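Aim 2, interim progress: modelling of the manganese (II) ion-bound target.
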Amino acid sequence: MGNEAELFIARSPYVFGGVSGRRERTPFSILGIPLDMTSSFRSGYREAPLSIRVAAQSLEYFSMRFNISIEDFLYVDEGDVLLPQDGVPRALDVVREVAGYLLGSGRIPVFLGGEHTLTAGTLRAVVDSFGRSTCALVLDAHADLRAEYSGTRYSHACVVSRLLDFMDKDCIYIVGVRALSREEYEKLKSTGIRYATARSVKRVGIRHLASSLQDFINSCGRVYLSVDVDVFDPAYAPGVATPEPDGLSPSDFFDLLYEVVSGKFVALDVTEVTPPYDPSMITSILAAKIVIEFMAGLYPHVLPGRA
Ligand SMILES: [Mn+2]
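Predicted structure of the complex, ligand included:
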């Protein structure tokens, strides 16, 4: 990159899976965003981008689901955003600028969090690039609909409220939700944001949910996929800041991704991995698998002909 945005990126001595591809051969750019400022319970997100990069080394690059090997095209690991430490709004400005630079260069960014709050910066850059018809498909145990939490509007408990600052409620769909206050539940219903609870995912099944998501995606210009890994049951993803029982399984997620991924997807984030609470690394390994399957699923759709 040759831009002032580069001033806000620190190269990492470790790259995702130990390998970084050639820019002209891949549309994908991996960017670490070690934002770690507002956890309401336990923290350590700043270590997640590194941990996910290391975890990727244990995984195969061939996806059986998609019959695609990402080894054939790889990705560029850009490094980590250098975050200013004078508050979340300033950090989000920098995140927005760096994400905007990648999008402006035609890249498909894959953001490694960091706390979920970062989505308010990355998604803003995607809306800057692709306009107000951009949608957010959010996987999260939490509704994140509080106006503020612990005295700040920029808490990881307020992510969807911050998205509503610059997005239409019809452009948001939350999957896997199961942890929210009564006030958030009322707000979820009164705003009319579409959502599928973790319980309903199991009750109606992935195919039924996928067809509902397909209707949503059809109404969107572009789609941003935001995965807060606490959407998974803590049995599968214990290393998160705020674990919440009764969640999705990895199979639920990967089957859903298989059903809905299309050329409308323009970016991914994977947030809330908390390595100090993940001694077996299974949460980081799951996060790395999400990155690999996303790229494998999306790649055939981004070949020539993409609008
Ligand atoms: Mn969450």
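The mean pLDDT is 95. Residues 60 and 250 are 16 Å apart (CA to CA).
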